[in-house]
Amino acid sequence: MQPWQPLLDWWFGPETAAAEVAAARHGLWFGKRDSQDREARERFAPLVEQALAGQLPSWQTEAEGWLGHILLLDQLPRMIFRDTPRAFAGDARAQVLVQQGLAQGWERQLAPIQQVFVYLVLEHAEDLALQDQAVARFEQLLAQADAGERELFAGFLDYAEQHQRVIARFARFPHRNLILGRESTDEELQFLQQPGSRF
């Protein structure tokens, strides 16, 4: 078994159809539960630390290892280090990793639902060019989706567009300011009073 397989099994489960995977794993992916954060920490914290330290080059030799490496840098820190600056510690490295893999076409070897977590790295970036790239990639996923899964991928695209609009307006995510010790502007504070402003 490849070293990244337990992580991919945990993250995506045994289902294969995108809608089934998303239905079964949505709570893990986008829920905020102490039990899930604890499980992520207990099972994968050492790997996350290795990824953050740049110690997993062997994971960058094929598409699924690339995906696992991305999860360790982008998704797992947001669980393991939730509400601390380290939640975003892997973002810059993940962005580089994503661009390297996209240049090699590795995303084409992944299922569409797996590709979502490649493009979420771009969606998490406080960089408008990367946000634009994220929206374009999610548009492609929607265009290629089967009729029964168009609603799912339309939702991912809508969320990407929401992130893009925030970065276009503020050049950063205001909801991260408190965690990262950044001072919010009056406009950002007003924005944060709106529903849905904190993702």
TrEMBL record:
It comes from the Bacteria. SUPFAM superfamilies: TPR-like. Signal peptide: none annotated. This is DUF924 family protein. It comes from Pseudomonas xionganensis. It holds the Pfam family DUF924.
